[in-house]
Amino acid sequence: MPGRGGIWQRPDSLWEATAPPPPVLPALQDSVQADVLVIGGGFTGLSAALHAAEAGRRVVVLEASELGRGASGRNNGQVIPTLTRPDPADLIDRFGWESGERLVGLIRDSASTLFDLVRRLGIDCAAEQTGWVQPVHSPGRIKIAERRATQWGKFGADVELLDRAAVSAILGTDAYFGGWMNRTGGHINPLALVRGLAAKVVEAGAAVYVNSPALSVQRRGDSWVARTPQGMVTAGSLVLGTNGYTASIFPEIRTEVVPVLSWQMATAPLGDNVRKTVLPGRQAMSDTHGDLRFMRYTADNRLVTGGALLNPVNGAERLKRIVGARLAGMFPALNGVTFDYVWNGRIAMTTDYFPRVHRLGPNGFAWAGCNGRGVALSVSLGRELARAAIGQDPKDLALPFTAPTPLPFNALLQRIGPLKILQYRWNDAREV
């Protein structure tokens, strides 16, 4: 959102209010050389930069605005080691056994990869590896939980199928009919993780430049050359990690995803008497509604939840009423709950809910399409993209490359995208 003088200013999010301050970083004002150029200062880019720098490579990161400006600093902070829709069998059917199995393994371990990295580096981001649970909202949806628990369990994930009593005990409500959980999931303060990662990237020897958008990126000879308003980077390899905020200089990637506005909101801190009855184990939760219900706690016992809107006009006040009533219907103890923060950001959706991984050219790599599962997935894919960028054979990595598939009438899809909520609500009311 524009501020004075056209400078972008972050919405008043809970994460901005509670995250440790960012490292002081410059804008690029010179011509520099690197082994690896990373475009995007979110989870993907910073993970790629960290792993490449720790491998001894010279790394430059270009962030168009401030750290955490995009989805990485403005999401719900749930660390979920699955995809939104595709299951392991779907991934193997799409990408083949070898490539699909490697991607399944990356996703299965993605939450632990993030939490292990946080512990190794000592990043202060309110990390809680308390597990993630997906309750089912209608009797017929229990087959979803059965399928996902079975498939992920087959590949070694720490999962459990839950009956109605078990879900009621975990959540503190009888609104659901069962579900499943993955014990490696959890939640973090996402902006704190971005800032903490950036500090560790700098400590590892990389250069991170903020307010330095890439205005052009070209392949010249055996190098990638990126120009910013006041500088230039020349590098042997390129990693693009901008997802739903991809610039128009990468049109094929920008137009193969549909950026969707996602609203987040945080209650006032809840008293211990309420917290011990509502999600008492502090797991992250997101259910089987298409019009999603989701929640998790913060370190100071705020419940962070959110919702979707057909029309963003006066969205914050409308969501306070809608989500407040929804919470009270599930948890009588939350009747009259108030919200101190409401904010939003864009998530990158694909029409089939699969992520996209691409070669941009010689030694150039990118991915897009988080579909609401970007926290754990971005950190792990950033590591894999770094390995490719420093010369490991991509055939041995969890990188199922496909050609970009721009969506016809992408601009129109972005305009009518919110209408998808109507379909979700229709399906939510049926056994589908």
TrEMBL record:
This protein's GO CC annotations: cytoplasm
Database matches in InterPro entries: FAD-dep_OxRdtase, FAD/NAD-bd_sf
PANTHER family linked to this entry: FAD DEPENDENT OXIDOREDUCTASE DOMAIN-CONTAINING PROTEIN, SARCOSINE DEHYDROGENASE-RELATED
Protein name: FAD-dependent oxidoreductase
Alphabetized GO MF terms: oxidoreductase activity
Pfam family, any one: DAO
Domain of life of the organism encoding this protein: Bacteria
Organism: Azospirillum palustre
Domain FAD dependent oxidoreductase residue range list: 35-387
Record keywords: Oxidoreductase
